[in-house]
Amino acid sequence: MAAPVENNDQLVLSEDPNHPANLICSLCRNFYTHGWVTGTGGGISIRERCDAHDRIFIAPSGVQKERLQPDNMFVMDFPTKSYLRKPLNLKPSACTPLFMAAFEKRGAGACIHTHSQAAVLCTLLTKGRVWRIGGIEQIKAIPKGYGQEGYMGFFDTLEIPIIENTAHEEDLKDSLEAAMEEFPNTCAILVRRHGVYVWGDTVWKAKTQCESLDYLFELGVKMVQLGLDPAAPIAAVEED
Amino acid sequence: MAAPVENNDQLVLSEDPNHPANLICSLCRNFYTHGWVTGTGGGISIRERCDAHDRIFIAPSGVQKERLQPDNMFVMDFPTKSYLRKPLNLKPSACTPLFMAAFEKRGAGACIHTHSQAAVLCTLLTKGRVWRIGGIEQIKAIPKGYGQEGYMGFFDTLEIPIIENTAHEEDLKDSLEAAMEEFPNTCAILVRRHGVYVWGDTVWKAKTQCESLDYLFELGVKMVQLGLDPAAPIAAVEED
Amino acid sequence: MAAPVENNDQLVLSEDPNHPANLICSLCRNFYTHGWVTGTGGGISIRERCDAHDRIFIAPSGVQKERLQPDNMFVMDFPTKSYLRKPLNLKPSACTPLFMAAFEKRGAGACIHTHSQAAVLCTLLTKGRVWRIGGIEQIKAIPKGYGQEGYMGFFDTLEIPIIENTAHEEDLKDSLEAAMEEFPNTCAILVRRHGVYVWGDTVWKAKTQCESLDYLFELGVKMVQLGLDPAAPIAAVEED
Amino acid sequence: MAAPVENNDQLVLSEDPNHPANLICSLCRNFYTHGWVTGTGGGISIRERCDAHDRIFIAPSGVQKERLQPDNMFVMDFPTKSYLRKPLNLKPSACTPLFMAAFEKRGAGACIHTHSQAAVLCTLLTKGRVWRIGGIEQIKAIPKGYGQEGYMGFFDTLEIPIIENTAHEEDLKDSLEAAMEEFPNTCAILVRRHGVYVWGDTVWKAKTQCESLDYLFELGVKMVQLGLDPAAPIAAVEED
Questions:
Q1: At a CB cut-off of 8 Å and minimum separation 6, what does C1 contact?
Q2: Tens of pLDDT along B128-152?
Q3: Which residues of chain A make contact with D125, given a CB cutoff of 8 A?
Q4: C2-39 per-position pLDDT tens digit
Q5: Of B6, B48, B137, B182, which residue is the catalytic one?
Q6: Contacts of A165 in chain B (CB under 8 A)
Q7: Rounded Cα distance, C42 and C197, in Å
Q8: Which residues are annotated as active site (chains A, B, C, D) (predicted)?
Q9: Is A66 a catalytic residue?
Q10: Looking at beta carbons, which residues of chain C come within 8 Å of B166?
């Protein structure tokens, strides 16, 4: 008989600061300082693949992200989708189905969800289903797309799809997956009036892409405040 | 004869970081970084209920909140409203009567008062007695109401009553209690040109609700700056 | 013969975190996080009066304020205005004559100078020689005036004089002293296009007054951005 | 035969916090808190000149700047331009040719590159090739110019040249050097839609000049938001 999943502490307790259970804690403290996980919102899930196993580490729902401890983490066996560890009295993040979409459909190594106000404002300032910004150096931090080598160029226009929010977070899964199909190269999906999901091949790529996108969201909002159009062709802004 | 209340240090000295006297200190340092307790403004009071006792921990008046020490705390026996500990040369926070209203009328486990500039600006931008915001995911962090299970929904409009400021903080008590009666489900009351009071069933709920409300106040101000109405029906903003 | 003033390390080396030489270092680190002492701008001077002596501690000029060390400090004997300690290779802050005005004319225990952008913006938004804000709770953190007991009230209008900047900081002394005479109750003087000087009876009063004023400067700028007049009578804003 | 350059750890490992390899790490953590090196953008290079050697320390490309470790550093012998140390699996910063221009043409002791949003916004708000601000005290932190003693004055107008961004960072070298020739006294060059390069005689001068310029960029953007012209003559703003 298998040991009760509540007790598999060895899956989350490690001296290694780069162990996924430790990284989720330290990254969430960092995200808190950015205003990305206010209250108990937002979060991150990390996938650990090696010869021996393929596991997902998930933070619990409803817990203050800057106060997470490694033993708060859920651990799922990715091939079987069964939990290897379930902390008593906690529920896995309501974002779990959305994180799973990034792991399953994009082979992501980590997926981050933030309630960044800059992201929310970009969705409020955009009438259509795509937020755009062009001609900013930071765009070069965004990968060309799923299964492609390299990064976007300075002269490219970055497009991030926006899906509509739903009453329950888990109900976003269908439209999130549909947006992934329609925009196969995006590494992020904005959720109107809610925030953003960002994924990457590794936890560090997910983090730097999330930071770079948030920089672009924030810059885009400031440009609108100053009467500039973030999606305008480069020359148009200079001659405006 | 009872020991002099000045000397009851055992009520506030503890190695446990979650002891109320320690929590008030660490939370106030956190609040300082948010700009909620500038100067000596704002504060927090925590109620500790257990089989053995029912006590209120109160920070002193006029002390820099980010430099509070556990032995600065006042301790009150809640049933008798008598002080069990009174630090020499200090006075209890002028907010005490208002914190008591949250404990007595709403059974709160903690009450937070901030001078958040976002809260003040929301009261300046609102002509009437109620500040409103609708259709933002973060609203789901706010409980449905006193004595009810569960949290507000994404499609709900959040309403926070605003009371007028008075010359002396303690004089706010009557209008704060009246607003609690009139808005029995609110977990917060804005004070025009002053700040906000937020309470919750536990200290952590009070903190996450205060963070979530401040996020919404800040987002609401930014929406107004961008020409968007935080209280508009969802469709209206998208088609605007 | 007196010991060379370069060597009086005992005047600045202490284990006590509240020793003026240590406080200047820790407060300047705090000020750096507020954006008050960017580059090498701004600073603080503390006066230590006791039965045994009456001394001024002054930070050096041109040094990064968040990296100050206690042995960078100058110490002056206040009654004789002679330096008791002069670190080699350093010059006392160019603000020294202005700090001295607060000590001599207002009996201050500390004087803080910041390059706060909010302060600079308030001077740019004000055509006349006085910046005003009224009807904000944080005003109650400002003392009524020199030689008076108590603090301003919520319904009072706070007035901070503005003097014009000069090419050399020390040349501000005459106009700063003239403003002190003309506005005997002010605890601060704004310098157009430059920043603000704030003093208080003790180092903690100077710090909390400086924080509260900066809060009011920042709020005042935000009000202007939102089309509100910080100096308007209370009713006028509500009905506007 | 020379030792493999991969192994010259003694060039970067030191207990001295002011060793260039340690300083690059601690300064980049500081820059991260300012939002200057979001994602993996921006960076700093330090030149160490002494009787024994003349070396350049360079951070690697594509690494999160707030997580740099001393053993991530490249070390170049400045006279021969040959690498003395090359960490395996890393590439030197793409900014290296631009940092070299500051060392070669201006005798800089350090050069900083940031993606500061305030810098980017200043380039977006300026139609021509020069960003200007005048009559702000913080301008006095900027040196008069290459080979000159002293600093700018309060009544001076600061001019920072803007070059156009290119697809590849290294391709900026020609226009950066041309701008250095055309504006021999500038200590910084803005790159449109990208960020800024700032250098100084020493690492501390580079840092304080970078902070002071960023303060001025930020203030300049806020002035535009408030309808004020950062480059207007002083009287014009007051009477406006």
A1: none
A2: 999 999 999 999 999 999 989 999 9
A3: 226, 228
A4: 556 667 899 999 999 999 999 999 999 999 999 999 99
A5: B137
A6: 135, 137, 154
A7: 9
A8: 137 (proton donor/acceptor)
A9: no
A10: 154
Cβ-Cβ contacts under 8 Å for A4 (sequence gap 6 or more): none
Can you list the domains of chain B with their CATH numbers?
A: 1-93 (3.40.225.10), 107-240 (3.40.225.10)
The residue in chain C having the minimum alpha-carbon distance to the alpha carbon of residue D213 is C39
Q: Name the pLDDT band for D170 (thresholds 50, 70, 90).
A: confident
Burial D113-127 (b: 16+ CB within 10 A, else e): bbbbbbbbbbbbbbe
Contact A125 B226 (CB under 8 A): yes
* C-contacting chains (≥3 CB pairs under 8 Å): B, D
Contact C208 B117 (CB under 8 A): no
Contact check, Cβ <8 Å, D64/A204 = yes
Write out the binding residues of C for substrate.
Answer: 95
The rounded distance, in Å, linking the Cα atoms of C111 and C187 is 10
Q: At what angle do helices C96-106 and C173-182 cross, to 10 degrees?
A: 30
Q: How far is CA D110 from CA B54, C41, D21, D24, D198, in A?
A: 61, 21, 12, 10, 9
SS3 B44: strand
- Identify the H or E element spanning C204: helix C203-225
Whether residue D46 contacts residue D107, with contact meaning beta carbons closer than 8 Å, is answered with no
Bridge partners (DSSP) listed for residue D19: none
Q: Are D65 and D42 in contact (CB under 8 A)?
A: yes
B65 touches B43 (CB < 8 A) = yes
- % of chain C beyond a pLDDT of 90: 90
Residue of C nearest to B42 (CA): C138
The DSSP call for residue C123 is: H
Beta carbon pairs, A and B, within 8 Å: 68
The alpha carbon of B122 is separated from its chain's Cα centroid by a whole number of angstroms, namely 16
pLDDT band at D239 (very low <50, low <70, confident <90, very high): very low
Q: What is the pLDDT of residues A155-180, one digit of tens each?
A: 999 999 999 999 998 899 999 999 99
Note the pLDDT of residue B220.
98
CB contact under 8 A, D224 and A226: yes
CB spacing of D38 vs A215 below 8 angstroms? yes
The SS3 of residue A71 is helix
Contacts from A57-61 at CB under 8 Å and sequence distance 24+? Answer: A57/A12, A57/A20, A57/A21, A57/A24, A58/A92, A58/A93, A58/A96, A58/A99, A59/A24, A59/A28, A59/A93, A60/A87, A60/A90, A60/A91, A60/A92, A60/A93, A61/A90, A61/A91, A61/A92, A61/A93, A61/A94
- Tokens 């700032």 correspond to what residue? D198
- Do A225 and B226 lie within an 8 Å CB cutoff? yes
Span B100-112, pLDDT tens digits: 999 999 999 999 9
Q: Phi and psi (nearest 5°) for B200?
A: -160, 165
CA distances from B112 to B63, B83, B106, B116 (A): 16, 20, 14, 11
The answer to whether B194 is annotated as binding is yes
Residue C45's H or E segment, with its range, is strand C43-49
Interface mutation target, options B31, B33, B36, B40, chain C, most CBs of C under 10 Å: B40
Task: Please list every residue in chain B whose beta carbon sits closer than 8 Å to the beta carbon of residue A113.
Answer: none
Q: In the prediction, which pLDDT does A147 show?
A: 87
